[in-house]
Sequence to fold (66 residues):
Amino acid sequence: MSESQRTPADLSGILESSHENKWVAIAPDYSRVIAAADSLRDLVLSVTDKDVVFHRVLPRDVIFAP
Fold:
């Protein structure tokens, strides 16, 4: 069985400090942030494009290991 591995996208070029602790909708090619909101529900309701990547932006001083 073959397992494909994806390289994580580098979002440092498109995420700003104003996005911390928020949900963001990112273009499928990871080139820009389309919208941001405090809750996922608000973000989903505000984004009309169906082809987006939803992502929760953690604060910069938080370490997360899945």
Summary: The radius of gyration is 13 Å. Residues 42 and 64 are 24 Å apart (CA to CA). Helices lie at 40-46.
